[in-house]
């Protein structure tokens, strides 16, 4: 078996470099180029090349307005040390992108930026799509790939997303989604002494169709450094559902999370063979499956993993290791934040190899007595933090005869209880400036304001806790998130009583007509407008991860329109609205998820419903509206 694999790999080596010439000369040139890169960088001479979905490879690629259409053209045009800036959008490949120079490829741009630090790879999703036909990246230099979503890459042999050939690139802030390596390494294949640095990456749904390494396969002396990375639902036909290490391949894995990966034979999480001894610290391996040793498998041929301060289901010998449910918030929906009280909090090793300074979303890595295990560093939200509210407004919340509801309500300005009889609020009522009560309401919680609680002569305020006013309340303003994104085309219509599905991506105005249904799935959507007409349904299925719907101008829900979440929790669905004077939820509309609209006024019509949270500039709640927070 070993000799056959070596022979196959040598044949692959010859094939890869038939296109590029003799290997020895390439290695010499590569060493020389390292010195050249240092010289160029020191003198600030590195050039920037631009790529957009509407560019042309006939352009010069030296500005956003004269951008290239393909990354391959940009790579071919670069000198060592140059940068390639790639604007948001989906780039469907017909051929693999060959990276044979020490260059940096950055995604996450809107297409107007002048500074690298202005990019936002979370909101400006930049996707490289292999169309289930080609390997996405073939890398033979110590390049950098940063801020890309790499999906649907395919190779009948090795690696579907990235194949590294005797190269150790830096791979950061990337998502690898449903890539397939026919033999080994669904997302990344590291061939002979390829030891990339991988940080803040997500590997989801990648597969090795026939052999080893559903997400990553490390072959002969390949020992990557992996930090703050998540491996979820990757699979291998035989061994190593997430990672397979073969012959003297010993990666360093720190503060990463492995969940629900699977292998048909051994090592659902990690598989080690022939003197492969990874160093694993502050890491969680949980709910991975395989017939034999589902979390970590090591052979009897010199493979001795050093695993410490990690949470391993079923247990594993090593200093500081535990075997306790890590209590993720919603792991089946891709939310690997640690819940309050998780046994993985404050029990990591502060002296771990390659301990990152921050966690996967930028929070300081060490918050408590010691670092946490896994990708998330738990940060306890202070009382009154935005996440603890079901309704919160920058300026004003107005409640008119609401139905019995649950959750905290707050405002940086005022809260007004309009005339009429409201039901019972199971939660706190807070406002920085003042609370004015002109109707009747019962609050089974606290009432707090830095100003005064003023009860009109016809108003009635029943409080089953305390009313706290003035300096004693000690409230601080809560800033709503700042939004910055764009959308484009095409426009989408779903005609009356019809149904349609949309993949994640960029769209114009999206209209779902009366009685029609629009299906969305995991990923990020960008829309100019979203209109759900009377009785329309937005059906969301996100078993493969969260859904974020970014809307530039308007969100409208007509009478009886509803958001239906087929699988997963409401906390996994977020609507971001950049602008728009008024966002209207009509009578009996049903909204589920989190709505963030810092520049808009939000109206809830008669008997409408909210399950989740809503944050806006102003919030007006009409008669008999019911709201409640995300289910636990």
Characterise the protein shown here:
The protein folds into 5 domains: 6-40, no CATH class; 47-121; 130-327, Pectate Lyase C-like, CATH 2.160.20; 387-472, no CATH class; 492-628, no CATH class. It is 7% helix and 40% strand. The protein has an 18-stranded parallel sheet that branches. Strands 1-2-5-8-12-16-20-24-28-31 form a 10-stranded parallel sheet, with helices on one face. Strands 3-6-9-13-17-21-25-29-32 form a 9-stranded parallel sheet, with no helix packed on it. The chain is globular.
Q: Helix count, per DSSP?
A: 3
How would you name the oligomeric state of the polypeptide chains in this document?
single chain
Portion of residues within helices: under 10%
CATH topology of the largest domain: Pectate Lyase C-like
The major pleated sheet works out as: 18 strands, parallel
Specify the overall morphology: globular
Topology:
Blueprint: H1 2-18, H2 23-42, E1 48-51, H3 71-77, E2 83-87, E3 89-92, E4 97-99, E5 104-109, E6 126-129, E7 137-139, E8 144-146, E9 149-151, E10 154-155, E11 162-165, E12 170-172, E13 175-177, E14 180-181, E15 188-191, E16 197-199, E17 202-204, E18 207-208, E19 216-219, E20 225-227, E21 230-232, E22 235-236, E23 243-246, E24 252-254, E25 257-259, E26 262-263, E27 270-273, E28 279-281, E29 284-286, E30 296-298, E31 306-308, E32 311-312, E33 328-330, E34 335-338, E35 389-399, E36 405-406, E37 408-411, E38 414-417, E39 421-426, E40 429-431, E41 434-437, E42 440-443, E43 447-449, E44 452-455, E45 460-463, E46 467-469, E47 492-494, E48 499-502, E49 505-506, E50 509-512, E51 517-521, E52 523-532, E53 537-541, E54 547-557, E55 562-567, E56 573-577, E57 582-585, E58 590-604, E59 609-621, E60 626-628
Parallel strand pairs: 1-2, 2-5, 3-6, 4-7, 5-8, 6-9, 7-11, 8-12, 9-13, 10-14, 11-15, 12-16, 13-17, 14-18, 15-19, 16-20, 17-21, 18-22, 19-23, 20-24, 21-25, 22-26, 23-27, 24-28, 25-29, 27-30, 28-31, 29-32, 35-37, 35-38, 35-59, 36-39, 37-40, 38-41, 39-42, 40-43, 41-44, 42-45, 43-46, 47-50, ...
Antiparallel strand pairs: 33-34
């Amino acid at each position: 078996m070993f000799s056959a694999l070596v022979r196959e790999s040598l044949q692959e080596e010859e094939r890869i470099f038939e296109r590029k010439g003799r290997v020895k000369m390439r290695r010499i040139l590569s060493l020389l180029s390292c010195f050249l890169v240092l010289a160029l960088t020191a003198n600030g001479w590195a050039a920037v090349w631009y790529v957009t979905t509407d560019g042309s490879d006939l352009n010069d690629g030296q500005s956003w307005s004269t951008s290239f259409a393909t990354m391959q053209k940009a790579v071919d045009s670069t000198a060592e040390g140059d940068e390639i800036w790639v604007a948001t959008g989906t780039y469907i490949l017909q051929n693999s992108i060959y990276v044979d120079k020490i260059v940096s490829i950055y995604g996450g741009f809107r297409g107007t930026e002048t500074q690298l630090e202005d990019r936002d790879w979370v909101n400006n999703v930049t996707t490289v799509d292999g169309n289930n036909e080609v390997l996405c990246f073939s890398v033979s230099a110590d390049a950098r790939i940063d801020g890309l979503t790499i999906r649907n890459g395919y190779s009948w042999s090795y690696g579907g997303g990235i194949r590294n050939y005797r190269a150790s690139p830096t791979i950061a802030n990337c998502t690898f989604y449903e890539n397939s390596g026919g033999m080994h390494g669904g997302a990344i294949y590291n061939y002979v002494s390829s030891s990339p640095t991988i940080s803040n990456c997500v590997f989801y749904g990648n597969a090795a169709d026939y052999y080893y390494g559903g997400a990553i396969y490390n072959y002969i002396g390949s020992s990557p450094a992996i930090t703050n990375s998540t491996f979820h639902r990757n699979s291998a036909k035989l061994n190593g559902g997430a990672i397979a290490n073969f012959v003297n391949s010993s990666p360093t894995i720190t503060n990463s999370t492995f969940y629900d990966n699977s292998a048909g034979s051994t090592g659902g999480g990690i598989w080690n063979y022939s003197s492969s001894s990874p160093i694993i610290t502050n890491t969680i391996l949980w709910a991975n499956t395989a017939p034999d040793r589902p979390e970590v498998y090591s052979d009897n041929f010199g493979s001795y993993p050093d695993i410490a301060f990690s949470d391993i289901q079923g247990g594993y010998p090593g200093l500081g290791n535990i075997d306790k449910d890590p209590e993720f918030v919603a792991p089946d929906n891709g939310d690997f934040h640690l819940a309050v009280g998780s046994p993985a909090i404050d029990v990591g090793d502060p002296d771990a190899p390659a301990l990152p300074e921050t966690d996967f979303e930028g929070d300081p890595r060490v918050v408590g007595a010691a670092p946490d295990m896994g990708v998330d560093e738990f940060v306890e939200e202070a009382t009154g933090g935005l996440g603890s509210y079901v309704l919160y407004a920058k300026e004003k919340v107005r409640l008119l005869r609401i139905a019995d509801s649950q959750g905290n309500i707050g405002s940086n300005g005022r809260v007004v209880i309009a005339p009429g009889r409201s039901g019972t609020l199971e939660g706190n009522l807070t406002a920085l400036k003042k609370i004015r009560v002109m109707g009747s309401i019962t609050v089974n919680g606290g009432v707090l304001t830095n100003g005064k609680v003023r009860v009109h002569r016809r108003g009635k305020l029943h409080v089953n806790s305390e009313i706290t006013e003035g300096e004693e309340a000690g409230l601080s303003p809560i800033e709503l998130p700042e939004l910055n994104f764009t959308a484009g085309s095409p426009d989408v219509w779903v005609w009356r009583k019809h149904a349609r599905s949309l993949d994640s991506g960029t769209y114009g105005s999206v209209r779902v007509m009366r009685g029609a249904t629009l299906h969305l799935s995991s990923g990020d959507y960008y829309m100019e407008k979203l209109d759900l007409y009377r009785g329309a349904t937005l059906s969301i299925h996100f078993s493969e991860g969260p859904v974020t719907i970014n809307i530039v101008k308007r969100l409208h829900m007509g009478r009886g329109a509803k958001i239906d979440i087929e699988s997963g929790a409401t906390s996994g669905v977020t609507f971001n609205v950049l602008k728009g004077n008024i966002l209207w939820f009509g009578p009996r509309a049903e909204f589920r998820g989190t709505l963030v609209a810092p520049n808009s006024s939000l109206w809830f019509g008669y008997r409408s419903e909210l399950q989740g949270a809503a944050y806006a500039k102003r919030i007006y709640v009409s008669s008999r509206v019911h709201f409640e927070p995300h289910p636990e």
